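Hi team,

Below is the intake form for Biogenesis of lysosome-related organelles complex 1 subunit 1 from Octopus sinensis. Please confirm the fields before the structure is written into the shared record.

FORM ID: S-0412
PROTEIN: Biogenesis of lysosome-related organelles complex 1 subunit 1
ORGANISM: Octopus sinensis
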Amino acid sequence: MASATALTHALVDHLNSGVAQSYVNQKKLDTETKILQANAAHFAKMTMQWLKLVEDFNTALKEIGDVENWARNIEADMRTISSALEYAYRKRNAAMMETPQDSLPDSKLIH
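The structure came back. Fields below:
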């Protein structure tokens, strides 16, 4: 009977040792899980900040492109206007050269 009691105590001690180790391991896992959750939340926050920065940068680039496009359109319009004025000036001068000054009424004479 004493040997059976000793064997029982030995088995219980051996099982308790495993349970104690499992408990310690579980506590470590819980701690590591909390750290991982905190790091994941921090990473998610940083990712959102980076996405916002990239989005703002992309918007700024689009605005620059819009301004550049607007400037090109204005430049093209100004070239068209300049060409039209130059053409009109040349036509007027050519017409003035072809018309003798004596045949123009007094109101059309250039003084």
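SUMMARY LINE: The mean pLDDT is 87.

Thanks, M.
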